Amino acid sequence: MILIAISGSTKCDWQLIDSAGKATAFSSTGINPFFHSEEEIIDVFNSIKEIAAVKDSIEIVYIYSAGCGSKRLKTVVRNALGQVFTRSHFYVNHDIVASALSTYEGVPAISCILGTGSNACFFDGDIVRQEIPALDYILSDEGGGSYYGKKLLTAYLHNTMPQELREKFSSQYALSQEEILEKVYMQPYANVYLASFMPFIQDNIKDEYLYTMVKEGMGLFMDLFVRSFSRFNNVKTHFTGSIAYYFKDILNEVASAKKITVGKIIKEPINDLVKYHLDKSPPQGSSQ
Hints:
The strands form 2 sheets. Strands 3-2-1-4-5 form a 5-stranded mixed β-sheet, with helices on both faces. Strands 8-7-6-9-10 form a 5-stranded mixed β-sheet, with helices on both faces. It is an alpha/beta fold and 288 residues long. A hairpin with a 3-residue loop joins strand 1 (2-7) and strand 2 (11-17). 44% of the residues lie in helices and 20% in strands. Residues 281-288 have low confidence and may be disordered.
């Protein structure tokens, strides 16, 4: 058996492939070693009932997780895997690598993540390369859910959003300043909390204020990440993640204005990643 997973900070998508090639799909809480300890990641693994009964039969686990951008953080995930999958081999890498593999069409391309956070890479079929580092929700994540959540809450607390929109937000969430500040500064997983307000933005995207907010965030992401690659204007740029998927009309509008050719837009790339793994091995330059 082979177990393959892509994890963002909010959600982890899994597929378990048996010896006959039959895949079983399921999801769990997301993991990110920036924010989750080894013990917390172990708890997530142990909570997945689809894995519990067959974990001793799993030969290899491929997991691509947000936050796995360094050897130290990959080791946190590997150590957790070792405590749960005692008979398995492991391959741990960053979720941007999964984005690259799952969108690959046989030619060099840029691959981006727009989910809870944001990131981008260039993949030539052999090596995954980045120009701009992903700095997570405090310093970066332009165009990601945590970025928009931060913009929305700031405008709400500063009373700089249109009054009608502010009243709608207040009615739906009934949050005080103290509650928001506690969630952001004192409780864990602030990035997930910030991104949790994306349904409000999606439901009200026809509001000019929110439309402009999303459009400007997409533009900032493309200027900073996509256009950092010298070949951005002669290769496709693929996107994975819920923000890219649900706001694809705005994404395409911004990309067109910036002479960026949009390729695939995939909400959940796990199926494409599984297909890649069943056909090919991981690319050179990826850490094991």
